[in-house]
Amino acid sequence: MSEQTARTIAFNKPLLGKAEADAVADVLESGTLRGDGPVTQQVETQMEDWLDIDHVFLTTSCTHALEMAMMVIDVGPGDEVIMPSFNFVSSANAVVLRGATPVFADIRPDTLNIDVDDVADKITPRTKAIVPVHYAGVSCDMEALSALADDHDLYLIEDAAQGVDAYYDGTPLGTIGDIGCYSFHETKNITCGEGGAFLTDDEDLARKAELVREKGTNRSAFIRGEVDRYTWVHEGSSYIPSDILAAILQVQLSKREHIKKQRRTVWNAYYDALRPLAQDGPLHLPPIPDACDSNYHIFFFRVDTSQRRNALLDVLKDHGIDASFHYIPLHSSPFAQQYLDESVTLPTTQQCSETLIRLPLHPQLADDADELAARTADLIATQLR
Ligand SMILES: *Cc1c(COP(=O)(O)O)cnc(C)c1O
Q: From the alpha carbon of 134, which atom of ligand 1 is closest?
């Protein structure tokens, strides 16, 4: 290993230890590896209590939770679903897989969350749902979005993939809309490798979710003894994770306060070190709005041009800091082009995507956070001068 590689600060690294290994060993020993076993049931109940929500279903990913969401609200051909273009592909795929059309809205330049005025402009008689993304673990304006969804009788589905253990006015993200979707992918704050959750307080949506998740059968009702055999009753698929993954997740969830505290230390160190550059320089730091309690999923900032951004990324990488850009806007992607007319322009999305930098952020960086932040800020200052 070269000296350079040895010193590289990885962009992300999950906080895993012996407790996770022991939990996996226990499940293997028990012989019940399938999903919806005793550990899955426990984790779902623990999450329902923590989040104060009636129904949590563990899923194989957030992508799959979003697919379930589109099935249970019955999105189909002719329907439109509004989401940000500055976004991961999952919610757009979930809509396209139903034969419906994703409609891409712009974002705000401060939090990079969906621009509620632009959502309002894009509502048509065909609109069925809005799928906001809580970028970086900082909530969208849920008060405005909830009001808009109510006024137009639309479903509000939270893509809270990045929002586990973050809050809006004290309420957990993912529990505010009709449905919330979580991710436990390795790159997220709380992880079991690949995994997710589907959250809802709505009894009808929960009953449908249970069928969809269990291959469209009423097997769950059968296991509860409510029917004497189970059969095909709905469209569905296989979205249930193994109890092995649930066991890892259970340990990770028990560490969530520690994980958030460590991440906050790193986030604050970067923020304080970069603040002088943001005062009069061409560097923009993200605000955390008053109503939002972040989980510090991402530390990002923006500069004024894409040339400057790309040069900064090169310098940071050359010095062993694995900084990164983020989403290429979906509306400009080759696959989305076939759904869009030529006239779609989303200026803030375009500008932010081209000028954004994310810095390495994971719990293990907390102990040396001040040193890392100072070194990072020095490199950036030299480059911006
Ligand atoms: C990570 C992520 C997803 C996908 O989560 P998976 O669990 O990997 O399917 C979806 N949406 C957003 C905004 C994400 O950050």
A: 13
Q: Which residues form the domain of 333?
A: 256-384
**Which of 212, 232, 254 finishes a domain?**
254
Query: Which protein residues are within 6 Å of ligand 1, measured from CB?
Result: 61-63, 88, 90, 133, 159, 161-162, 183, 185, 196
User: Who contacts 180 (Cβ-Cβ below 8 Å, separation ≥6)?
Assistant: 53, 157, 158, 160, 173, 174, 197, 198, 199, 200
| Residue 129 Cα to ligand 1 middle (Å) | 18
Residues 40 and 80 both lie in one domain: yes
CATH number of the structural domain spanning residue 197: 3.40.640.10
**Ligand 1 center to 236 CA (angstroms):** 21
Q: Are residues 249 and 268 in the same domain?
A: no
pLDDT at 357 over 70: yes
Say whether 342 sits in a helix, a strand or coil: coil
CA of 195 to the centre of ligand 1 (A): 10
Q: Whose CA is nearest to atom 1 of ligand 1?
A: 161
Do residue 98 and residue 111 come from a single domain?
A: yes
Residues 208 and 279 in one domain: no
Please tell me the distance between residue 88's alpha carbon and the centre of ligand 1 in angstroms.
Answer: 6
The per-residue pLDDT for 6 is 52
- Say yes or no to pLDDT of 5 above 80: no
- Check residue 3 and give its pLDDT: 45
Pair (274, 352) in one structural domain:
yes
Spatial separation of the C-alpha atoms in residues 48 and 42, rounded to whole Å: 10
68 neighbors 94 (Cβ within 8 angstroms): no
**Residue 112 above 60 pLDDT?**
yes
pLDDT for 127-154, tens place per residue? 999 999 999 999 999 999 999 999 999 9
Please give the Cα distance from 129 to 110 (Å, whole number). 24
pLDDT in tens, 217-270: 999 999 889 999 999 999 999 999 999 999 999 999 999 999 999 999 999 999
Domain check: are 139 and 117 in the same one? yes
